[in-house]
């Protein structure tokens, strides 16, 4: 009996029965469906990433694109490599998908007509434009800064066009001014993107990233204190800076590298952002709005920042850029070529932000050249400023061959300049 029973249980089991017992479905080729398994693994990893990063309340409702980049190396044993691990790529895609659904996006305004911060209406169309309020349908209105100041009857609008020195004006705008045209049905009372106060100021002459210091753009800046909502409904408090160069790049970073007045403006903006960020709720509560006192304090901080910017504007009107920078920099232009030819290779650096070449000379001298070897400017920087640029990898080492070619071009330009000066002196004597 035992033998018969044992033989019966050891009979071959059909493939489809084995698969059913193990929870698998048969495949037409007799092999497991590897492609389906891989897709299921990706979907499961994405699901876990959403739960891990945002919790069950923020699961996206609509399908979203998820791209994974790997490099496959054929050979006796095929292998795949990814610059970023596949799981991290999936988590990054999930994070971006959920983040794009939030109304607040740094550097972009929320458009109530399109119900998005990613439409063409959410950014200023030109560097000289500021946010002038919402239209009745919730469409953002962007106006030239002088036009907004004229609407407000600002007494000093003509200063924006003064040929002498550097002038910029600042004005604080009450939230009611920005919403008085907006209809309730198009977001006037909405907390999706609620502007608590706004500053507009300009014009500033700033250098866009990747251009030489001589190429500037006139820029106006909009600074907003904003209460908005996360996807789970909890409130958040931010300072949004709305300003872009003609190529679409953000303006704020360029303020930190410019003349002294620009750096003070940058500091005033950072201080306002830090103080308003400190008012933000420490924990999420989807059922509560920000307390009224918190909103008032955020508005007061912005008004204080406006007074600081007004003061800086008056200072800029009293002194030109050269008068402001000369005591600090004492530009040593006469030593530029000499230092460029004598500097060791590790002191000839590439400025990846300005797309120029920087030479570190003796006595804190710093010389800036174009890649063609033409001298652009010279200045004196303290050791801390130099180390700061090196630490941020804005100034990076160059290959020895690149340094050699640069020196040749700089020497050639120096010879041409000396020849021009000699010819001019001989002509003067004649």
Q: How would you portray this structure in words?
A:
The chain has helices spanning 2-9, 15-21, 34-54, 86-100, 145-151, 175-179, 252-255, 260-277, 292-318, 321-329, 336-342, 383-391, 400-429; strands at residues 71-73, 79-81, 129-134, 140-144, 169-173, 193-206, 217-229, 235-242, 348-351, 356-360, 365-369, 375-380, 395-397. It is an alpha+beta fold. It has three domains: 26-100, no CATH class; 120-324, no CATH class; 330-429, no CATH class. It has a five-stranded antiparallel β-sheet. A four-stranded antiparallel β-sheet has the order 5-6-7-8. Strands 1-2 form a two-stranded antiparallel ribbon. Helix 8 runs antiparallel to helix 9 (292-318). It is flat, with a radius of gyration of 31 Å. Mean pLDDT is 81; it is low at 1-32, 324-329 and 420-430.
End-to-end CA span: 131 Å
Give the rounded overall mean pLDDT: 81
- Structural class by SSE content: alpha+beta
What's the number of extended β-strand segments?
Answer: 13
Q: Could you list the spans in which at least 5 consecutive residues all have pLDDT below 50?
A: 1-32, 324-329, 420-430
The total tally of domains equals 3
| H and E order | HHHEEHEEHEHEEEHHHHHEEEEHEH
Strands ordered across the widest β-sheet: 12-11-10-9-13
Helix content: 25-40%
Shape: flat
Question: Major sheet: size, sense and barrel closure?
Answer: 5 strands, antiparallel
Rg of Cα set: 31 Å
**How much β-strand is present in the residues?**
15-25%
- Helix segment tally: 13
């Amino acid at each position: 009996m035992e033998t018969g029973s044992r033989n019966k249980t050891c009979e071959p089991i059909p493939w489809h029965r084995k698969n059913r017992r193990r929870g698998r479905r048969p495949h037409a080729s007799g092999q497991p469906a590897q492609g389906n398994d891989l897709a299921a693994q990706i979907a499961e990893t994405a699901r876990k990433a959403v739960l891990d990063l945002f919790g069950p309340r923020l699961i996206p409702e609509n399908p979203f694109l998820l791209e994974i980049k790997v490099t496959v190396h054929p050979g006796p044993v095929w292998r795949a490599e990814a610059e970023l691990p596949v799981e991290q790529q999936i988590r990054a895609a999930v994070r971006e998908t959920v983040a794009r659904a939030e109304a607040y996006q740094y550097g972009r305004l929320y458009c109530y007509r399109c119900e998005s911060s990613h439409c063409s209406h959410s950014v200023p169309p030109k560097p000289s434009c500021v946010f002038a309020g919402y239209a009745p349908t919730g469409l953002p209105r962007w106006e030239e800064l002088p036009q907004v100041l004229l609407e407000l009857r600002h007494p000093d609008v003509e200063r924006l066009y003064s040929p002498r020195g550097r002038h910029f004006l600042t004005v604080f705008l009450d939230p009611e001014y920005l919403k008085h045209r907006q209809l309730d049905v198009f977001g006037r009372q909405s907390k999706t993107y609620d502007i608590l106060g706004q500053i507009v100021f300009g014009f500033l002459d700033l250098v866009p990233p990747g251009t030489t210091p001589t190429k500037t753009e006139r820029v106006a800046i909009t600074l907003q204190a904003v209460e908005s909502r996360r996807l789970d409904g909890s409130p958040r408090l931010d300072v949004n800076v709305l300003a872009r160069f003609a190529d679409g790049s953000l303006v704020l970073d360029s303020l930190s590298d410019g003349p002294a007045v620009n750096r003070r403006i940058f500091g005033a903006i950072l201080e306002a952002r830090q103080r308003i960020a400190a008012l933000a709720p420490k924990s999420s509560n989807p059922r509560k709005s920000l307390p009224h006192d918190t909103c008032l304090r955020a508005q007061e901080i912005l008004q204080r920042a406006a007074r600081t910017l007004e003061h800086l504007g008056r200072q800029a009107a009293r002194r030109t850029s050269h008068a402001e920078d000369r005591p600090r920099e004492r530009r040593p232009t006469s030593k530029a070529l000499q230092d460029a030819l004598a500097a060791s290779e590790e002191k000839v650096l590439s400025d990846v932000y300005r797309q120029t070449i920087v030479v570190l000379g003796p006595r804190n001298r710093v010389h800036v050249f174009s890649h063609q070897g033409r001298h652009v400017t010279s200045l004196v920087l303290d050791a801390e400023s130099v180390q700061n640029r090196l630490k941020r990898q804005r100034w990076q080492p160059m290959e020895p061959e690149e340094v050699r070619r640069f020196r040749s071009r700089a020497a050639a330009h120096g010879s041409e300049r000396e020849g021009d000066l000699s010819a001019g002196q001989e002509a003067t004597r004649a």
